[in-house]
């Protein structure tokens, strides 16, 4: 069965900017019981953690309101995999340099099992009442709350309204329409996140899920990985590369290179997160400015939509010397309308506070999120997810790029998943 799926990618390397860690503890005026005042350190990465980004604005807002416990951002790398690595180095050493941890929704189980984060059960009721159900669930493990929802995420299809009449509802149609429109305009059809990192796994899963596939049953006691379906999806991606549906450089592209390709007018379609909307909308020099719109991601069947549930939550380090203030901060960032609205209005970063969506229903990004988020699927929050992801990257990335046998690749993934069941 032939299908056409696409994601293009522009190659490019991220420049990782890191600040030196400033340990907490006595330097912050704390006596070691976790209750004193002093500066908090928030370890988080990504574009919005950069100077001027919305996470910096949230930090400034908290600091203005809480001068005895100001917070500063410890800037981590752009890529989530590298953010986790830097946090893990500090936490494995039981270092107190980080008070608040910006944690990807897939790290909850691992951080909890490793004893790296504080339980937030004492503030559970307040946080649960304010949060979207899916976002709240992503912050729990073993029935206990280990992080406070901060921002959620779902993938969008970005498309050029001056080049196509309406967004496609199947991946096959996307390739067909994209190739024709790209040839007429002298550009490329599609870009997504095809580099060998967590984003590739997210992109692959969105195809696989949209074809009806699953990884595990609901309580992760049984592997449901369908090797036949997985092989079809992987072949589809390989064909899309070979047939020119994916832009050159797809296999090295992450979020920002993909955004740059779309923003520079080099592609017809793009899969990316909501934050891109505001950046393209503000760039009056972009060929896409005023000529693009957003839609749900296509599916294999054309029925409904599916997206990987993304986002970051805030956890309190088990080794922080200022835990009480850190818990206050993560609770505030999850339940106060002011920081949650900032995320939405300043950066098109999807908040986790349910009431904010009602207040911003006229915003196109918030409106589409309201349509997409109920069907978004979380990656399994298993403690082994990092190892699972690495294995999927190792096996599937070469297969998609014509450098490995597809059937062997999907069987390898199935075997690895079986090994995670106790």
Structure description:
The chain has 422 residues and is of the alpha/beta class. The chain has 2 domains: 25-153 and 309-375, 3-Layer(aba) Sandwich (D-Maltodextrin-Binding Protein, domain 2), CATH 3.40.190; 157-307 and 382-418, Periplasmic binding protein-like II (D-Maltodextrin-Binding Protein, domain 2, 3-Layer(aba) Sandwich), CATH 3.40.190. 41% of the residues lie in helices and 12% in strands. The chain is built from 16 helices and 11 strands. Strands 2-1-3-11-6 form a 5-stranded mixed beta sheet. The protein has a 4-stranded mixed beta sheet with strand order 8-9-7-10. A hairpin with a 2-residue loop joins strand 4 (140-141) and strand 5 (144-145). It is globular and about 60 Å long. The model is unreliable at 1-34 (pLDDT under 50). InterPro entries: SBP. This is ABC transporter substrate-binding protein. One of its GO terms (cellular component) is ATP-binding cassette (ABC) transporter complex, substrate-binding subunit-containing.
């Amino acid at each position: 069965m032939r299908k056409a799926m696409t994601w293009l990618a522009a190659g490019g390397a991220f420049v990782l900017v890191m600040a030196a860690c400033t340990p907490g503890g006595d330097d912050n005026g704390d006596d070691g019981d976790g209750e004193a005042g002093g500066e908090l350190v928030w370890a988080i990465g990504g574009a919005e953690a950069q100077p001027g980004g919305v996470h910096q604005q949230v930090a400034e807002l908290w600091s203005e309101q809480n001068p005895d416990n100001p917070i500063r951002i410890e800037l981590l790398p752009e890529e989530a995999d590298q953010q986790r690595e830097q946090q893990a180095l500090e936490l494995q050493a039981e270092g107190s340099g980080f008070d608040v941890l910006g944690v990807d929704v897939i790290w909850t189980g691992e951080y909890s099992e490793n004893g790296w984060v504080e339980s937030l059960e004492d503030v559970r009721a307040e946080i649960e009442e304010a949060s979207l159900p899916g976002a709240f669930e992503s912050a729990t493990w073993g029935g206990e709350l280990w992080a406070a929802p901060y921002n959620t995420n779902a993938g969008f299809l970005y498309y050029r309204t001056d080049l196509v009449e309406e967004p496609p509802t199947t991946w096959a149609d996307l390739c067909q329409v994209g190739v024709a429109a790209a040839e007429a305009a002298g550009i490329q059809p599609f870009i997504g996140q095809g580099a060998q990192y967590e984003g590739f796994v997210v992109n692959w899963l969105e195809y696989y899920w949209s074809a009806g596939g699953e990884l595990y049953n609901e309580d992760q006691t049984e592997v449901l990985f369908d090797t036949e379906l997985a092989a079809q999806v992987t072949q589809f991606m390989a064909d899309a590369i070979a047939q020119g549906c994916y832009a050159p450089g797809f296999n090295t592209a992450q979020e920002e290179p993909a955004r740059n390709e779309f923003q520079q007018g080099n592609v017809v379609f793009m899969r990316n997160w909501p934050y891109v909307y505001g950046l393209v909308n503000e760039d009056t020099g972009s060929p896409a400015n005023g000529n693009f719109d957003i839609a749900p991601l296509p599916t294999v069947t054309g029925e409904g939509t599916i997206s990987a549930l993304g986002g970051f939550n805030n956890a309190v380090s088990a080794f922080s010397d200022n835990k009480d203030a850190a818990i206050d901060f993560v609770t505030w960032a999850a339940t106060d309308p002011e920081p949650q609205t900032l995320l939405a209005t300043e950066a098109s970063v999807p908040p986790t506070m349910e009431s904010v969506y009602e207040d911003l229903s006229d915003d196109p990004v918030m409106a589409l999120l309201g349509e997409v988020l109920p069907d978004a699927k979380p990656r399994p929050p298993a403690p082994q997810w990092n190892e699972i992801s690495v294995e999927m990257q190792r096996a599937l990335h070469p297969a998609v790029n014509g450098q490995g046998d597809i059937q062997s690749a999907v069987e390898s993934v199935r075997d690895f998943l079986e090994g995670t069941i106790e």
